[in-house]
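pinging the channel bc i need a second pair of eyes. not urgent but kinda urgent?? the chain im working w is below, pasted from the shared doc
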Amino acid sequence: MSFLTRILIFSSLFLEIHILSAQPAVVKSEDVSDSDPLLYNGKQYAFFIPLTTGGHQFFNDPLFQPGSVTIRGVTYSDLLLNYDIYNQQLVLQYVNALGAKNQIVLSEAWLESFRLKEIDFELIRTQDSLKQIYQVIGTGQYRILYKWKKELVMDGFIGAKNHTFSVPGKEMNLCSDGHIVRYTNNKTLYSLFLPGRKERIIEYLRANKINVKRSADSTMNRLINYINSLSPQ
């Protein structure tokens, strides 16, 4: 093989590698086959309940909704997803190569985050080294984390023998540089801050008539942005 031929081969390989590395780490669902091991890596979703059970196990709606997931730094968009908060599982629905509808639980080993109905979720390792799915509000030093859950309870009617899923319940947490602390109301939230910053947070809550137990995500997003804007005390 001549020296010129070697140079041409090396240049072609370098160009190919450069092009591949320059591709954005965002993949649309139509560009992915169900043989992609990064995305389609999970067990079959199987959760069977009696037909007489009331409600459903999902976050908002039993219908699958468009969303996106990030797995090992690669974001897959335009997927059909649902969040089973009773079992704490993210479920992907897709049509396989045979044209059949399939549902799998995405593996938590590689899953980093997902977005569903304009709501952001992340898998965060807690103090006991377990991964937990949290709804995340905010992007600065301080963030609000909601841990969602449902329970399967007896129907409230007298003499009823059937079960029903409860309404979604949330545990409220403040995350500061990876440290997660639970709060339950306005007082327990602002008590997590040092004097100076604490007083300004109290003033903001009162001025805007905020009750953190009942406030919308948009209100909490403005609150946490304000907290992040305060200078350190």
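so The two ends are 69 Å apart (CA to CA). and The chain is about 20% helix and 35% strand. — does that match what u expected or am i reading it wrong
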